[in-house]
């Protein structure tokens, strides 16, 4: 049997105001050289400033880069700034984390993940979703050496981001169904332990759907822990298969088609409702749970044109065609797509 490599973070810090310990955590991780902090336009004041202050208090020389997207060009721009830098600290949402992770991987240096929102399960995973001229690509990267999730920042982020994180976890249900199908039909490699962890995480978040509340530290903590364990399922599998199937293809297609896409997790949640129906599963349970989490369940709540939903359903199978799912090789016909979206109340 082939050998297997599993990458996990070395230290994970979850709690109120842990961002103020960024400097000492990086020292404990044996870093002492120059550090590059990567952040986004909204997250500089919310998080990066605090991380920089803490790093400077511990005598790190800190450089700063602000980014707006997660494209391969932006990754290259960050790589160009890495002279004498031995560590990148990414402070922000999923796009910031992915760019910082990918640039550090390409440069052969380390990366610390400081999520400011619990909106996606890439906070600790060894993958980065980067856009190039072919669309979104799931790229192998180094797992962060450390994760610093400040639940005070995360609980005060717009509630929509937390709901999106829950929906990204709910999508594990259809991702696992797709993975099992690919294993049966295409002999794709499958990991029982990764699938079990992914499903357990999705069940836990579904069970808590009514108790996840705006502004509560306990809710922020629960969602961060769940995103972390979903990320660990990705680590064990060595691919995003336990957390990304047909529903993610639908979301990636919407990112290409919609004038103003919604959040990643929100789109994946709506995709899960429809893909669960295609799998013959209980899509109404998924829909009700998403509703309880305040996540969108239809085109109107996503702020997306119903015609774009149909186009994305028709296009979805062409995204990452090597990843076999319930959409098969030919995907949905226009009539089937329309029927599915109407039946599930998405349009
Ligand atoms: N590498 C992986 O394994 C995974 C990667 N992803 C990727 O992550 C991205 C989605 O991440 P998102 O965080 O949904 O999108 P995002 O990075 O675009 O962030 C959404 C918005 O929230 C803002 N924001 C973040 N924290 C905030 C705070 N505390 N207060 C106010 N605003 C705040 C950001 O500035 C941004 O405007 C996608 O590109 C997706 O493909 C998603 C799942 C897994
Ligand atoms: O979003 C992810 C898991 O939630 C990762 O997915 P992709 O591999 O589809 O980019
Ligand atoms: Zn996702």
From TrEMBL:
Bilayer-spanning residue ranges: none
Pathway linked to the protein: Membrane lipid metabolism; glycerophospholipid metabolism
Manner of cofactor binding, per the entry note: Binds 1 zinc ion per subunit.
Chemical reaction(s) catalysed: sn-glycerol 1-phosphate + NAD(+) = dihydroxyacetone phosphate + NADH + H(+); sn-glycerol 1-phosphate + NADP(+) = dihydroxyacetone phosphate + NADPH + H(+)
EC number: 1.1.1.261
Binding site for Zn(2+): 168, 248, 264
Keywords: Cytoplasm, Lipid biosynthesis, Lipid metabolism, Metal-binding, NAD, NADP, Oxidoreductase, Phospholipid biosynthesis, Phospholipid metabolism, Zinc
Molecular function via GO: glycerol-1-phosphate dehydrogenase (NAD+) activity; glycerol-1-phosphate dehydrogenase (NADP+) activity; metal ion binding
Calcium keyword on record: no
NCBIfam families xrefs: PRK00843.1
Similarity-based family: Belongs to the glycerol-1-phosphate dehydrogenase family.
Protein name (record): Glycerol-1-phosphate dehydrogenase [NAD(P)+]
Organism: Methanobrevibacter arboriphilus JCM 13429 = DSM 1125
